[in-house]
Give the backbone structure.
Amino acid sequence: MEFLERFVPGQPGMADRAVFYQRDLHATDVSPASVMSIYLLPEVNLMIRPRLLATLKPGTRIVSHDYGMGEWTPDFQEELAAPGKTVGIGQRSKILYWMVPGHAAGRWRWRMGGDGKPVEFDLSLQQKFQILEGMLAAGGSVGRIEKGRLTGERIDVSATLDRVRYEFSGQIFNNAIEGKVRVTTGGATREQPWSATRVELWDTRHAGLTSEQSIKEMH
């Protein structure tokens, strides 16, 4: 319960908003869900993973008992004592938590002022689940993205160009980002607004994974 309250804050009337169905897992429309709790075998998790990613809205929270989602690593994981549990080893349970990521893959551009005239920035992002990789280019310099990550529609990426450190954070709205950037140079840090526009939309690296390909991750 403590774990769930960390990610699904307790609110009066939560019990009235929880819905239980006895239906075919593969035929049920889960798109309205904002939180899903599942206790399925590993191969079933992998079978439904593509549909969950394609159907659930970014920011939807998924909590799984004991079993993961293959290469889709959890955003948070905890192991708890489960006295009396008759399956597994050592009467322990794993709780795994994910937030469905948005879509950040593509090329993004913006102009940002420095000490002189505004400079054109170009950000190329590849995405696999919530993890982002790519390159940031500006003023003839190129740097690799560090710690690129999505939390729902929230994006966080960092890079260093010519000993200047950029830490971007913002919210994705379709093909735009609105947020802020922290710029550190020579030991001094300043913060300013950040807006970017997606000029090329790319598929995510996980988008083409079929259920059959996902199952192979177990072997």
